[in-house]
Give the backbone structure.
Amino acid sequence: MTTALITIVAVIGFGIITGTITMVMIFKLLRNNKHKQHFQKSILTEGIPAEAVIHDITQTSSSMDGRPGVRLDLTVTQVDGRTFPTIVETYIPVTHIPQFQKGNVIHVRYIVNGNERKVEVEDAYVP
C-alpha cells in the first residue's frame, strides 16, 4: 500500500513538473515570436527604403495563414548607390507571387544594427 501511494505521488509530481516546464517553454516561444514580429513591423515603418534585385527564391517548408514561406537571396541597393547582399525569410501573399521572380526588383526597408543590416520586404506578409 505504501509503495502504491509513493508511486502515485511520484507520477503526479512528475506530471506537474513536466507540465510546468512545458508551459514555461511555450510562453517563452510566444514572447520571442511576438518580439520578432514587432521588430519586423518597426523595420517596415521606420526603416530606410531601398530596392533589391531577387537572385534566387526558394520555398521553405513553412507557411503562415495560407501564405507560403520563402527564402529570398537579394542584392539591396541603398539610396547612395552602394549595394549589399542579404537573405530574407518571409511569407508572401499568393496574389503577390508573380512579383517575386528571379531578376525582379522589389521594394524593401532596412535598418543598420551595429555591423549588420536587417531587411524586410515591403509587400510580404507580416501578421
Q: What stands out?
A: The domain at 47-121 is CATH 2.40.50 (OB fold (Dihydrolipoamide Acetyltransferase, E2P)). The two ends are 55 Å apart (CA to CA). The chain has a mean pLDDT of 87. Residues 91 and 125 are 5 Å apart (CA to CA).
